[in-house]
Amino acid sequence: MTETQGWTAPGWEGVRDAFQANFDAGTEVGAAFSTYHRGEKVVDLWGGVADRDTGAAWNEDTLIPVFSTSKGMVAIVANMLAQEGRLDVEAPVAEYWPEFAANGKQDIPVAYLLSHQSGLAWVDATCTLDDVLAWDPIVDVLAAEAPKWEPGTKHGYHATTYGWLVGEVIRRITGQSVGAALAERVSVPLGLDLWIGLPESEESRVGALISMIPERDPNAAPGEPDPIAEMMAAFMGPDTPLGKALFAPGGALADQDVWNTRAVHAAEIPAANGICDARSLARMYAATVSEVDGTRLLTPEQVAAATVARTQGPNFVLLDMEVEFGLGFMLNQGIIALGGPSSFGHFGAGGSVGWADPDAELGFGYIMNRMDIGLAGDQRSQSLFQACYAAIA
Question: Which of 171, 250, 258, 278 has the highest Cβ tally under 10 A?
Answer without folding.
Answer: 278
